[in-house]
Design brief:
Layout: H1 2-25, E1 31-32, E2 35-36, H2 38-58, H3 60-68, E3 71-73, H4 79-95, E4 101-105, E5 111-117, E6 120-126, H5 127-132, H6 135-150, H7 153-183, H8 192-232, H9 236-246, H10 255-258, H11 278-286
Parallel strand pairs: 4-6
Antiparallel strand pairs: 1-2, 3-4, 5-6
C-alpha cells in the first residue's frame, strides 16, 4: 500500500511541476473565453505525459540501483561474480547489444533489466536467485533479461506509458472543465471544482490506464522467454527456471521496476499484473519445443 501511495504521489508531483513550468512558458493556455482550446490542451497533455515518462526512463539505472540496493560487480569479487559477468557478456554478444552493467542485490529470487539504451543497460540478479537455482537456470533468467534489452522493451514501455499519460491528462481536464462549467455552473473563470475534479480524474484514469501498460508488459514477457530460449538454443532451462520460481516466493521489486523483473507477485486483480501466470509462460515455451 505504501508503494502505491508513493507512486501516485510522485505522479501528481511531476504533473504539478510540469504544469507550473509550462504555465510560465505559456504552453498551457488552453483555457479561453470560448471554452477549451482542445488542440492546445492536447499539446500540453502530450508534453506532460511524455516528459514524465522519458524522465523516468533516463534515470532508471541509478534509481534501480538506489531503490534495490544493487551493487555493480566486475567479476573480480569472487568465482560466482566472475561467472555472472562472463555469462552476461556472452549472452549480450549473442544478442548483439553492448555489455550491460551487472549488479547483485539482496533478496528473494528475482531479477530485472533496465536502462534507456540497448548499449548502456543494467542487468541485476538477487542473491536468492543465485542461491536457489542451478547455473543453467540462472543463465536462462539472465537470457530473459538480455532479451528484454535486445527487444527494446524499456523504450517501448516508456512510449506506451507516455501515450496513456497523455490521454489521462487530456481527459482529466476535459472532465474537470465540464464539471466546473456545466455541473457546478461556474461562470467566473476556473473554479475550485475544476482543480479537484482534475486531480481525482488523473488518479482514477491513471489506475485504469495502468491496465493497458500491464497488458503490454504481459505480452513482452512471452517474447523475453522466447528470447532466452533462442539465446541458449533450447527452452528447457527457462522452463526449469520458471517452474522453480513457481515454487518460490518471488522477491518484491519497487513498483518502478516491476515491469522489468523476471517474476511478480500476483496482484489483487489479474488485469493489473505485469507478468502472466507462470504456467502460461511454461506452456508457451513447450509449444516452441
Amino acid at each position: 500500500m505504501k508503494r502505491v501511495v508513493l507512486f501516485l504521489a510522485t505522479n501528481i508531483a511531476v504533473m504539478i511541476v510540469l504544469s507550473i513550468t509550462l504555465s510560465v512558458l505559456g504552453v498551457n493556455r488552453f483555457m479561453t473565453e470560448n471554452g477549451l482550446n482542445l488542440p492546445m490542451l492536447l499539446v500540453f497533455s502530450a508534453v506532460v505525459g511524455f516528459v514524465g515518462s522519458f524522465f523516468s526512463l533516463l534515470i532508471s539505472k541509478p534509481m534501480a540501483k538506489w531503490s534495490t540496493g544493487a551493487k555493480v560487480i566486475d567479476g573480480s569479487e569472487g568465482t560466482t561474480q566472475f561467472w555472472l559477468v562472463n555469462t552476461v557478456k556472452t549472452l549480450a554478444q549473442r544478442a548483439n547489444i553492448g555489455m550491460p552493467e551487472v549488479a547483485i542485490f539482496e533478496g528473494e529470487a528475482n531479477a530485472f533489466a533496465t536502462g534507456a539504451f540497448k548499449n548502456s543497460s543494467l542487468v541485476a540478479v538477487s542473491t536468492g536467485l543465485i542461491e536457489s537455482m542451478s547455473r543453467e537456470e540462472v543463465e536462462a533468467v539472465i537470457g530473459h533479461e538480455i532479451a528484454h534489452i535486445a527487444n527494446g522493451d524499456m523504450v517501448t514501455l516508456t512510449l506506451i506509458q507516455g501515450v496513456v499519460n497523455t490521454f489521462v491528462v487530456f481527459l482529466a481536464r476535459v472532465v474537470g472543465y465540464f464539471v466546473d462549467k456545466v455541473v457546478l455552473k461556474n461562470d467566473r473563470g476556473v473554479g475550485m471544482g475544476y482543480y479537484v475534479t482534475v486531480i481525482v480524474c488523473e488518479i482514477a484514469f491513471g489506475i485504469l490506464a495502468s491496465m493497458i501498460v500491464a497488458w503490454f508488459s504481459r505480452k513482452r514477457e512471452f517474447r523475453a522467454d522466447a528470447g532466452s530460449a533462442s539465446l541458449l538454443g533450447t527452452p528447457a532451462p527457462m522452463m526449469a527456471a520458471l517452474a522453480r520460481l513457481g515454487g518460490l516466493e518471488p522477491g518484491e521489486l519497487p513498483k518502478s521496476f516491476k515491469a522489468s523483473g523476471i517474476n511478480d507477485k500476483p496482484g489483487f486483480m489479474a488485469l493489473f499484473s505485469t507478468h502472466p501466470p507462470i504456467q502460461d509462460r511454461i506452456a508457451a515455451l513447450q509449444n516452441r519445443s
